[in-house]
User: Fold this.
Amino acid sequence: MKNFIKLVRFEFNRVAPVYGVLAILTLLIQIVGVFVTTNGYLNSVNELKQMGTIDDSMITSDIGTMGMMRYTSTLWFLGPITFCAAALLIYSLFIWYRDWFGKNTFVYRLLMLPTQRLNILFSKVTTVFLMVIGLVAFQLILLHIESNLFQMLIPKAYFSYANINQIIRGSYYLSIFYPASGILFFSRYIQGLLGLLVVSTAILLERSYKIKGMVMGGCYAALILLLFAVPYLLQVFNSSYYLFSSEIFWISIGLTVIISIVSILISHHLLNKKVTV
Amino acid sequence: MKKYWKLIALIIFSGISISTFYLVTASAENSYPQYTIETRSGDKAVIKDLVLSASSYNEYGDYYWDTIQIDAEGTIGSKDVPFAEQLDMAYQNDLSVQKIYREHRGFFRSKNWDMAQFY
Amino acid sequence: MIEVRQLEKKYKRKKVLNGISFTANKGEITCLIGTNGSGKTTILKAIMNLTPLEKGEIFIDGKALDKETYETIAFIPDAITMMPSMTIQEAMEFMAEFYTSWNQERATELLNFFKLSAKDKISQLSKGNTMKVNMVLGLALDVDYLLMDEPFSGIDIFSREQIAAVFTSHLVENRGVLITTHEISDIEHLIDKAVLIENGKVVTEFNAEEMREENGKSVVDVMREVYQP
Assistant:
């Protein structure tokens, strides 16, 4: 357990500089975007005024109001989020491959540590997971900041207020990252953790069996996606509702637990008996 | 131990940010308005079993707030109801209808759950 | 004692190891000799569980390999194994953190002997110096056995002398050392036991000193007989 924590700290400190840059970039781009969007909007307002429309309600019925609700669908807002998501996805692979390839073969050191080799798996998966949670938490703070900025910059007549909850519910992408309740949040991110475990197992398969392993890894991932889709497919084929939504929820929780255990067992076997430097 | 500060800071920051968010939104303030049925005239007992099942939207109608039920006592929204029932409210709004579904699970499978089709 | 029994391993349909068996004793320096690609490195990696075997068993002091093994054997590979962005100091701290057998005094002593500075970055070291750092990281562990893969290859003669000096010092005394090499001339006088490998099998093994005294043959002589009959 102690070694696990040491390894998490080690893995996180390795990537911390890049991670910090990701966070700062997100902040800068989203905030700059607030100013740019506000500017553009207020320019349109002024244009309308110059053309003769002085009535505020006529202006807003023409070009709408401005606030976070509109901003969350712009590229300024979604761009950095997409970029971070892609970066983290790539790192979930890179965190393994960086130790095998490149000028150094650091994986020697990891595999020769006097500790359970599973800790290598757990520490890498945990590090990426923490990075995801960290950015998710950071974005929440940014939502507050950006919302307040809009409130300060846009005159009351043209400003549409929405509280954080409404902002999130009103954006398809945000509501994926911030589900409606704490329990749903927990279950959704646990499933994300499972995804990381499955990806790691596939990588270990490739490192143990090379091309054959890559194919095995791909099949494994595909099989799991299929398993999760089964409850929904049942509904499609029955062309009616077969399972309660709540039942689907519990089934997917059960599947998540089972598949996590299976992935961990497979990875354990691969790390101890099959992996090659 | 000084090597741990980045990790600890991240965990604490994330924990506070996310739990604050969910504790705030869990409160009724962010959900639906509280509707009540006002007695103008007549006997309140008449509406004892009446339930209005509704979806509430924000003022522009462009975003969906919550599924709610209004009856003689007041308003119930998804926050007031156990988790499993919350999920099911998506398809089967009415809580009393849900109760029937649960009691007769087997009967209701593989059938279209639109209440209008049942008498 | 490191005991290796009937190791078999295929690599791309070719049998790299085809029934290798030998032992390496504590207090002795055993040398695996063979041409390039004869599987010597594979044997060392297999002992450290860094590569899987099709068949065979490995015992360290009678016990099978497990995570405790890494506190009794150290492997000094022929590769850069620490992150290039690390300094030597950081690499040592990494080792100190995870190994209870890490001996910082010995590490510092070795660094001084090799004339290396702890502040140097690994990425900036020459090949010779990287091997020396690997040695420091391995030798500074209070382990019973040391495995070294080609400790002398591709290194300038002065570094070779330094490394050879380590072999005769107190740093290696009482430990079991298993090294691989394909050029034996420098260190013939250092080794106790020679194990010659060809085509995935052990061709012959003998005590170097006995071979010299009783048969008047050096290890190189035996090698010539075996590899160029």
Strands of chain B lie at 51-57, 64-71, 75-76. Chain B has a mean pLDDT of 68. DSSP finds four helices and three strands in chain B. Helices of chain B lie at 5-25, 83-88, 95-103, 105-108.
